[in-house]
Amino acid sequence: MKKYIFLFLSLTCLLSVNLRAQSIPVVYAHRGCWLGTEVPENSVYAVEMAKRYGYTTIECDVHYTKDSVMVIMHDTNDMRRCIRRKADNSKLDGTLKLSDINFDDLRKYYVLASDNPQYRSPVPTLEELLTACKENGITPLLHSDLIESYKVAQQMFGDNWIAFCSTDAILKEARKISNCLILLSMDNVTADQAIQRLKAIGGRIGISSMSYRMFTREFCQAIRNAGFEVQSSIFPTPHDAEAIQNGASILLSDFCYLPNKQKQPSETISIKKGKLQKGE
């Protein structure tokens, strides 16, 4: 596999202001560090690539199979984008829901989609992905509604993991079992409303949102001044840079390296449509 140069911190080059060192946000890898159609998202390999490219934290999606095994998968209602048939790497003919298949059959008949046979790996269990995180010095961010997944993370990492969902009641339960960082996903709220919800959970906590319009300078500063984190969640360019400038403390980044085979490796990399690509 070619050695790709992955510059996730080049976002800061888009800013028109000088940032204080403490204002530069931490960058988390959304579904791990996946590389085009080669390294699959939410895979053990995506954890290993995250370490290679300098990430310290990865986000992953935790869900149950039909027989209640916790696995890492995002597209639970239609897995055709994420998996292929193990026997011949062919695409699925129709919709397959994670909740409709037992774990043994998922592992027996399917692998994660990749153009490279090296990376056609099984859909990982929660424990397998967390083990990979531990071995590679990566902090896991569990995007999960499953309290059981939080208990497993707490057992393996102590308080050095992150709970992430949009349900206040679930995160209140998470706080009972851990002093980990908690990120509450919310949209269309004022800063005062967000602060009230964060205070109700307490401890190390912050807001996460995919709504870049909500992350004004005034909004971010109000949340930060109250002592909470502000995570921008896969904002498109240039709104990711605006979030940094306005005070976001964490970037959940969906950047991956998408090689253009017509370009030479020595060419520069630029940011385009939320992905890192070779300069055109």
Plain-language structure description:
The protein has 280 residues and is an alpha/beta fold. It has one domain (8-73, 124-278): Phosphatidylinositol (PI) phosphodiesterase (TIM Barrel, Alpha-Beta Barrel), CATH 3.20.20. It is 27% helix and 21% strand. Helix 5 (168-177) links the parallel strand 7 (162-165) and strand 8. The longest helix has 11 residues, at 147-157. The protein is globular, with a radius of gyration of 19 Å.
Helix content: 25-40%
- Name of the CATH class: Alpha Beta
Estimate nothing, just give the exact number of structural domains: 1
Task: Supply the CATH architecture.
Answer: Alpha-Beta Barrel
Number of strand elements: 13
CATH superfamily: Phosphatidylinositol (PI) phosphodiesterase
Distance between the termini: 23 Å
How would you state the average pLDDT, rounded?
A: 86
Task: Using brief descriptors, characterize the structure shown.
two-stranded antiparallel ribbon; about 280 residues; 8-stranded parallel barrel; about 20% strand; TIM Barrel; disordered N terminus; 8 helices; alpha/beta; 13 strands
Task: Give the helices and strands, then pairings.
Blueprint: E1 26-30, H1 44-52, E2 57-64, E3 70-72, E4 83-85, H2 103-109, E5 110-112, H3 126-135, E6 139-143, H4 147-157, E7 162-165, H5 168-177, E8 181-185, H6 191-201, E9 205-209, H7 217-225, E10 229-233, H8 239-246, E11 250-253, E12 269-272, E13 275-278
Parallel strand pairs: 1-2, 1-11, 2-6, 6-7, 7-8, 8-9, 9-10, 10-11
Antiparallel strand pairs: 2-3, 4-5, 12-13
Helix pairs in contact: 3-4, 4-5, 6-7
